[in-house]
């Protein structure tokens, strides 16, 4: 632990973010990041990293040690920010800066190199020495200036009426803001944008959080309202700029990984999974840093689904000659679920079969049972996944009410590795309500001696491997496909982030964001892929389309405002019904040119008219398109803003934003 961490250990390590009132279960650790996850990566150069990545033994898990440290660090950062997002207290902001500084600038001078090496290993393209050294030196300077700003903030926290402490923190804010503005272009050097993308994302995240501080505390520091408005406007503009850069070069890297993979689906999937965690999960939080929209604690959820490596023999991708018609698209279409409304995996029925006389009995096919948020468990089921031929035995895995946070699988194969299947597995479960744990185990009558053990898991926020009290992802789907003339069965496990609330809980003292894909039922609606910046997919309406969302209110006495975040290429009219009120909503175009390639600036917010709603009459929200013409819009999320003494700031922020808009329009006119 470095000197800064020792100095602040008691101050930050004992911070309790009160998970009991959050969107996660009570089985949760306290924050913040106490360990230095990058120690094992110090003094690791690019070639060493590539060797570790290419020779990684999946019997030890899904990552090499070094890659896991990068993943753990990124999960820690995004999960911690989610837990603290919108807390309007100075002590919370000081704590956030302390945790982020410890995570990104521990005692080592080369702590940022693992991020660079990690991306290089994924796309097999090296970052040249000049670009690497330039970035590292600028990061060193940023760390020093961030430390000075943090110290000034802490000093002001102790004496908020002192003019000297106000002036110091104001000056340090402006100096640090200037350095971010100057140095961020270094982290997008042309030709190396992908290799530097994880670094760029983390630095952009810090800059946006810094600018948010000006909206929160600028008046207390002695800033003029004009200066505060200028910083806010820059934050909004930079949110779009930073978001679009991250999404654009994430996609460029994804295409590079696909070109590298040929028929090796795991290479492509590794990039998608790991860069979602290190880049897109953090980018998805940027829009929620808008203090004028989110001046109080805000509940955010990441609904994206990512897949751990295929459960197969070590050389499974080298045997395409057994089935020449199988290509990359075959794997992608069978091993990854297409965009879908958010679901909860309740049960899996598995049927074993004989793959061959060599491999003996193994996982043959399965059916997933699931429900949408607000439905009863086991409300829906998938089609048969895998092969329904030559059944041998039946296995029933009941997950209702539990999270699967870790899976151990044993793959049986012949010596060459072209005949294979899963012959044994352990699912590690924890009950969402009472934290009780159990393990569901299955073992077939496989007799082959060639076996490969695979652990499918994600690091916890403070534990590696994850534990029942500290895990970041839960199993959401099991996919599979037969290849090689029906003699080899590949499985893949889909996972969602633990921030997702099973009940769509609405809190009386928080702004609650509910992604639109978490509906309970829908008619004539379509799920389309998210652009990468929304933390999940989007919902579009077809002709006569409608969706219902079920909510669980902590109290029915609190009144709420409701708003939606959406994107549109034309003027649309939707109808909504909630708590006995039926209204039509006119939605203006947000300026989007296409719903298939949405940019950050293409999204807008609309607050439902007629103001205030009370959930005493019901807990179902319905949004409908009664037209026979499909509207040209998509919905990202629905938000509930409580109206009480704690949200008076929201009303003040609305008035400030309204006044600023009027002034800006006068200048434009």
From TrEMBL:
Q: Which CDD domains match?
A: delta_endotoxin_C
Q: Which Gene3D superfamilies match?
A: Galactose-binding domain-like, Pesticidal crystal protein, central domain, Pesticidal crystal protein, N-terminal domain
Q: Which residues cross the membrane?
A: 80-105
Determine if Membrane is one of this entry's keywords: yes
Q: Does the keyword Transmembrane apply?
A: yes
In the record, biological process GO terms are: sporulation resulting in formation of a cellular spore; symbiont-mediated killing of host cell
Q: Which UniProt keywords apply?
A: Coiled coil, Membrane, Sporulation, Toxin, Transmembrane, Transmembrane helix, Virulence
Residues forming the Pesticidal crystal protein domain are: 85-290, 298-501, 511-644
Question: From the record, what ranges are coiled-coil?
Answer: 139-166
Q: Provide an example Pfam family for this protein.
A: Endotoxin_M
Determine the domain of life of the protein's source. Bacteria
Q: Which InterPro entries match?
A: Galactose-bd-like_sf, Pest_crys, Pest_crys_dom-III, Pest_crys_dom_I, Pest_crys_N_sf, Pest_cryst_cen_dom_sf, Pest_cryst_dom_II
Q: Which GO terms describe its molecular function?
A: signaling receptor binding; toxin activity
* Family according to the record: Belongs to the delta endotoxin family.
Q: What name does UniProt use for this protein?
A: Crystaline entomocidal protoxin
